[in-house]
Fold this protein.
Amino acid sequence: MRVLALLLTALVAASCGGAYLTPGQMEGMDQASAVPTPAGTDDPAVVAPSAPSPAPATTPRLYAKLRVFVASETTNQIWVMEAAPGEPFAMVTKIAVGTMPHQMAVSPDGKYVAVNDRMSDQTSIIDPVSLKEIVRIKVGKQPHGITFSADGSMLYIGHERDSYIAAIPTATWIPTAIMAGVPQHVLTINPAHPNELWFTVTNSTENDVLRVVDLETKQITRIKVGDVHDAYFTPDGSEVWSSSSGFLDKPSDRMVIYDPVAKKVKEEIHFTGHYPFHTLKPLQDGMYRPEDTGVMVLSDHTYPGLMWVDWRERHIVGETKLGQQPFHSSYDPEGNRMLVTTNVDGMVNVIDMSTRQVVQKVPVTKAHGIVSVGIQAP
């Protein structure tokens, strides 16, 4: 699910010198052992030069630097840091947006970064190359859920205090409404099924709080389940998992697993002693995904930190300790690093995926949403 990122430059050693034999050296050699005469020469003593060894193919890097955008909730800014492959991250600038920037998304081509300004009922669009806000869109009340379409032509915004989902073409940035009938908390799309927009219901007394809207027909399918916070696809897209509660003071170890084709509950599981929250989502948290699709990394508000989950076997295979209230994450394929926000200590935690250890911390006041974009060399 991620673009592969392997990449070391190879050194080439090529040999090309011709050798010569004197007539004395040629004496005593029989016909079969004589060196053949190179084409275009009459001297059988001339040895043909060996062909140079072909240069090993080098795989180009995915980007010259990874640029990371982080929502700083109380400063009303997006803080931007970046790093060349394998190098430490450093802060480069801060971009003013609306009030309380919160959830974020990046278009699949990396052309746009979007952030919901939760308390000013706006969505800011940022050019990740120029580092400028290019438009600020008026949306519904308390925008929260956010995702781009699989082809990058649309941006979808869910609202915690409005009954519609905003559908915004990236060509015009003029929103239209998809009537959901209830307020929504989070959104998610499986790129393999781009016409299905999943959303969770909030601030409502209605049942069936996980639903799917067909983006062609606008028909909504209700899934019979209660108490859903976030919902996300497994790395291979074969299942949907949902966390529960979502309230910081009401932890829940419950997760529900769904068949995304039948749109029915398959199983309920519990991670005792943990409070699973979020995980990486395609079309939202960055342009890249980890190569290992057998492990899903969930933020955990009880530990607090990360849970490394073998989702097929339904058990935790590792943990990473972080500060209080870990929220969203993004992935750096060139360095095989995951970047995770923690809100209370105001930090972006850079984690080596191979060791599952924190290798760097970058301060960001009240960090929440995070996305990353690969930037090519000029």
Summary: Residues 37 and 87 are 54 Å apart (CA to CA). The longest helix spans residues 23-26. DSSP finds one helix and 27 strands in the chain. The two ends are 27 Å apart (CA to CA).
